[in-house]
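User: Please predict the structure of the protein below. I'd like the answer in structure-token form so I can feed it into my own downstream comparison script.

Assistant: Understood. Taking the following sequence of 158 residues as input:
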Amino acid sequence: MDIITKFLKFLLGVWAKELNAREDYVKRSVQGKLNSATQKQTESYLRPLFRKLRKRNLPADIKESITDIIKFMLQREYVKANDAYLQMAIGNAPWPIGVTMVGIHARTGREKIFSKHVAHVLNDETQRKYIQGLKRLMTICQKHFPTDPSKCVEYNAL
């Protein structure tokens, strides 16, 4: 738990230092202000995650997924980290949005939806926000700690 918190806070610090190192005219530009606002928003989105990690009451499946994501990020395996992120965010459900009644085959559709397969993004707004913040930090990590192109996820944001 402590390693997850320290690593995510480290990435937030790296991002903040990058933004502070920019020229003044860049900071004052529209794009510069937008980038700063995104960093501050990400910080606020991750606060509930840090609180849950500190109190050790993060749901076990999310904790396992975040642990995998952090492990892959530390190994600079960004494609695997992205796969783990997608698994956590949208899951493996046949209907990730939670659609169950789709006509005459409704019973089989309902039987395929398990709690493990439910998309965590849809559970509540707070979870959606810190999962989104985690994705932003994955992008920052890949930008600052590049690796083989075959292990990278292509982001237009970089």
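That's the full token string. Residues 139 and 155 are 7 Å apart (CA to CA).
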